[in-house]
Protein 1
Amino acid sequence: MSMIAAFYGGKSILITGATGFMGKVLMEKLFRTSPDLKVIYILVRPKAGQTLQQRVFQILNSKLFEKVKEVCPNVHEKIRAIYADLNQNDFGISKEDMQELLSCTNIIFHCAATVRFDDTLRHAVQLNVTATQQLLLMASQMPKLEAFIHISTAFSNCNLKHIDEVIYPCPVEPKKIIDSLEWLDDAIIDEITPKLIGDRPNTYTYTKALGEMVVQQESGNMNIAIIRPSIVGATWQEPFPGWVDNLNGPSGLIIAAGKGFLRAIKATPMAVADLIPVDTVVNLTLAVGWYTAVHRPKSTLVYHCTSGNLNPCNWGKMGFQVLATFEKIPLERAFRRPYADFTTNNFTTQYRNAVSHRAPAIIYDFYLRLTGRKPRMTKVMNRLLRTVSMMEYFINRSWEWSTYNTEMLMSELSPEDQRVFNFDVRQLNWLEYIENYVLGVKKYLLKEDMAGIPEAKQHLKRLRNIHYLFNTALFLIAWRLLIARSQMARNVWFFIVSFCYKFLSYFRASSTLKV
Ligand SMILES: CCCCCCCCCCCCCCCCCCCCCCCCCCCC(=O)SCCNC(=O)CCNC(=O)[C@H](O)C(C)(C)COP(=O)(O)OP(=O)(O)OC[C@H]1O[C@@H](n2cnc3c(N)ncnc32)[C@H](O)[C@@H]1OP(=O)(O)O
Ligand SMILES: NC(=O)C1=CN([C@@H]2O[C@H](COP(=O)(O)OP(=O)(O)OC[C@H]3O[C@@H](n4cnc5c(N)ncnc54)[C@H](OP(=O)(O)O)[C@@H]3O)[C@@H](O)[C@H]2O)C=CC1
């Protein structure tokens, strides 16, 4: 019997960010391995015209939860959606709901965050810092609370090269930042943002670092742990391989490459691609929840959930495998054939952006205009290039994350728990994982049918022929122009034509003699 699964039995668990990528996988695993848990409270806001209930219904009826329904048929009764907007004071939670949360909660998993790289400092602080502070305040009033698990990111200290499992202080206190954002206007905030974030690349990594400081400062006598995953990718094994449902991290770029939009990227092939499957992160998170509640470590422990130091893979290998998978399993209606190379030089990047990205988009938009349709490709391409530029920081550097706490925890688990809550990335076969990831992107994210693969291959063949035809036409036009202007080109041309003529005459004569 798994000790961790048994631990969550009968527990009331509060999850923030349960509608997000990681939150959904966390809920799924909890219900599947501990179907006798008491209740999962989730803090949800209405979104995109959907009520709370509609959002929960959609999640529970998704492919991800198919296995859960077999082991926990009354899952609908065990999930309690509570209206909450983490941007509001007290999260806008009603008095009755707050009372229930305060008196019943045993474990908190705090996953909610804004993960956008381009968020304003005000919004990122509100969600990643102030909301964390408020949740800790709530937690401190929960008499039955056994553990508070905070999800951060391995990149919260990406300004350092070697990162230990400790909380590093930021120069300005989070409280000072929160206070000053209350009275500063947006224009001033925008102006001071670069100074505050310093050598971090965006407000996301900066505010996640501030969030960790808040956790340390407000921990009181609660049992708290911080988990720092690196780049979270599709599932490795559970509930099935390759599940993914959003465009964050590599997923969006995998689509862009498969559809032939992204054909060159400024990336260092030898830099470590520190990807970590979402089910691995969830397994570690649940193991940490158990360990923190049962063993009550004296201080707040930080756990790195990374792959680089135990089982490294680099961006070159990853990109190569992504493209190799598209050979076998192409995406439907590609814009161009998937092809891409890594460049590390700024000039080459600009050149490739102009020739491989912007020029085809302009030509395609011209064709759309000619055929009476609305041009859109240039806009799509500009958006993609902006996204890629925000990822560049992460694909041109390598980091070393120490994993002492994570390895210590692994050794504390029983063999059964090591199997059920496996977070040992040494067992991960990257080539297999990436192939499943690409397949998952096609099936679960793009919802493409596998039956369409022959047609997708035909489409790629047509694109290849168009590509050859286009290049030949371009060459002939260029050559014709050259001949018209240069005597030397004319001489070369005359030489080639007469050589071909002589060769053909000789060939014809010798074949006539043989007959
Ligand atoms: C040697 C050589 C060998 C061979 C070479 C082969 C080369 C192959 C090259 C190709 C290789 C491709 C495969 C390799 C992949 C490499 C990729 C590497 C990625 C690395 C990522 C590193 C990140 C690490 C950071 C740390 C991790 C974290 O802690 S946080 C999680 C990461 N966070 C993110 O990823 C968020 C990033 N996103 C954003 O910040 C913003 O979305 C944006 C700024 C990028 C874009 O903002 P914008 O306002 O323009 O657009 P937006 O409105 O956000 O969205 C546009 C449309 O997309 C839809 N969308 C966006 N996000 C989502 C979502 N999460 N889920 C669903 N849909 C989403 C959105 O709805 C919009 O759609 P429309 O409304 O229809 O327009
Ligand atoms: N994805 C990754 O690569 C990595 C993620 N992380 C961390 O993991 C955690 C989970 O990330 P992930 O699941 O990928 O992120 P998602 O963007 O998929 O999910 C974010 C969650 O936060 C919720 N949320 C955001 N704003 C509010 C709000 N105002 N009120 C209530 N809920 C809100 C979202 O709700 P809604 O659905 O309503 O928007 C959603 O459930 C985050 O803390 C992130 O920093 C760390 C490393 C890598």
Protein 2
Amino acid sequence: MDEEKRVAVLPWLRHPVDLTRGEQLCVRMVPFMDRRLKSVLENMEISNLFPVQVALWHETVGPGNFERDLCINSPTGSGKTLAYALPIVQKLLPSSTIKCLRALVVVPTRDLALQVKQVFDALTLPLGLRVGLAVGQSSVVDEISSLVHVPGEEEGPNPGFFSPFWFQSKVDILVATPGRLVDHVNMSRGFTLKHLRYLVVDEADRLLREDYQSWLPTVLKSTQSNNDDVTGDDDVFQLGGVERGSNPHHRLAKVVLSATLTRDPGRLVLLNLHHPLFLSAGQMRYRLPENLEAYKLICERKVKPLYLVALLKSLGEEKCVVFTKSVESTHRLCKLLNCFEDLQIDIKEYSGLQHQRVRSKTLNEFRKGEFQVLVSSDAMTRGMDVEGVRNVINYDMPKYIKTYVHRAGRTARAGQTGRCFTLMSNDEVGRFKKLMKKAEASACLEHTIPSCLIEALHSTYQSALSKLKEIILETRKKPKDKSCQ
Ligand SMILES: Nc1ncnc2c1ncn2[C@@H]1O[C@H](COP(=O)(O)OP(=O)(O)OP(=O)(O)O)[C@@H](O)[C@H]1O
């Protein structure tokens, strides 16, 4: 059922703290912030905290002191990652020498996990805290040895002897995707969430929508022993000297975020939130970035590729993400664009159809500016932060406003300007108008392309189509590439 049609609203969602009234705050003025953290931020060239970061700081380190669980609905690119990373790092700073896993961040995709880890690394490396990654990039065994001291490694001069470090955590903070997290909870000896004090659920609506091996009940169950069992067998190697904060029965504090946070009581209740506080930018669930310019580009279906090519040409060297409706369309469109002979633009594909290694490589190259246009399907782009993306193009109009918000949000991030073009046929205009009404700040202008430019592209289009046909026939003759399963 469409979530927006539901009428029941949880009482605490009715009175949000309005983030749009908040101001930026100079880092030097942030109350209670450890001076080492201030200096790390200075080195990262961050001189002001964004409103969502100020508000979260207030509720976590400031007077709020993590006493309530927090749900945040704040636009794409508004700085949610740093908003939760800063208070966690500050709270974990007065750390003992013996490590244990005290903060867990769950995100839906590997590339996003890598991105979030990089933010934590930048903050924590100079401060002596360690951040781990559990995303299934390597085998469970290899991954666990990067997270926990396991017997067999670092044996020293007396191999076979008991080491006090066995099964001790190597990391203070873990960034994980849900499936691999559950693997570790269920299978990896020494991996424990018993000392967890902070749980962040980023891109929460996506993580709550899909079951991912029942990751949420598994995590909550594994952390419950935090409250009622501090002397269980598993703790035998970890208790001595481990800092659990002033209160050994510390409550697990939760921070739940999205640019399109679900209001569905059935889903939110799964989080078992403690006296939740809702922080939201504006009244509506969907809000577009302040400096986004939205355009519709009306054209007939059969000449859509021509309009896309003309548009890409007019955008010149600017970095651009093109969204299609499916992994198959992404693949086909990318191939077709690469068949246009005089289109001097480097274009690559990014979709769930590809192997993770290929996808991560493509993303890195895009980040470095090695090519300009990324053709993508939806699933993988949640939260993706690539500097310099000036344009988003919806080659296929999204079905839901939520999809539009996340796609458009790959540009106009951190207060920068950006444009989102949506290609549509005449019969889609009404539906698009309805869709956009669901979002705040969603004014949309029409963008036109002179018909002479389209006509001039017709013959190159025909040869591109023939070339594509040949490629398809060739690929059918070859055995299937197993790396793309
Ligand atoms: N205080 C700040 N000053 C300058 N830049 C910042 C600040 N906070 C965050 N940024 C930058 O803003 C960009 C967007 O931040 P982030 O990825 O956390 O956004 P987000 O709200 O999580 O977006 P999404 O909903 O798309 O995941 C990043 O490039 C980040 O480095």
